[in-house]
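Lecture notes, unit on protein representations.

Consider one protein chain, 267 amino acids long.
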Amino acid sequence: MKIKLKLLLLAAFLLSACNVFAQERYTHSHNDYANNTPFYKAFNNGYNSIEADIFLVDGELLVSHSDKYLFPERTLKGMYLDPILYALRRDTTRRLCLLVDIKADYAKVLPKLEKELTPLQPYLMSRDNPKGRLKILISGNRPQGADFHKYASIFWFDDDLVYPHAPAQWARIGQVSLNFEKWSKWKGVGTIPEADRRRLQKTVDSVHTNTGKLVRFWGAPDTPEAWETQLNFGADIIGTDKIEQLAAYLEKKALRKPVTAAIPNKQ
């Protein structure tokens, strides 16, 4: 009886934590740090998911897609954590997911990241604070499900459906991210082949039904046709490198309200 009760409570937590962020479709700023105004352009265009790739170098978390382009001034704290703290204090209604793609050595990176997130503690979504307005989603080089419990509950983990998970492990997964090209080679021009659309639809439906998790397809074509197609087969998170274009597209479709007050760039 106690085991059944624990499983029911776990399932309730899993669904409530997921649904806090599932109330509106995500827009995801892919490799956000590569645009000309990191964080602020995406945030001020209404994005609720922002990606930063990081390396641990000489005790500092540096933002870069490759270890060939590491610069000491491009710290995670300066580019993202401090601006997020400022923005969430100014805008008390916004929710945000920071997708942290760890490029190497997650076992060393995660303790350092936990320490740097201390000032953001009141906003962090966790087991103890399921309505927190900031979700920290760990992607890239990350622990396997059996080791999730070793890390603070402020960390949620990205999943690619490669390995099975126990219920307690699913409770730590923040979203499912899948490689679009494994389902379709469509380039985002014209109409997607019907067989590909059905495969994508079936996958999204299965994830929603069996896990209750949000679904993102990375590597999808970055065109209006592809955004429309993803909306139609139920993807929860639409990623882009074209921040302003996707924002305008969704506002035109009346799928979200335009941002009325921008947060000034404090960098």
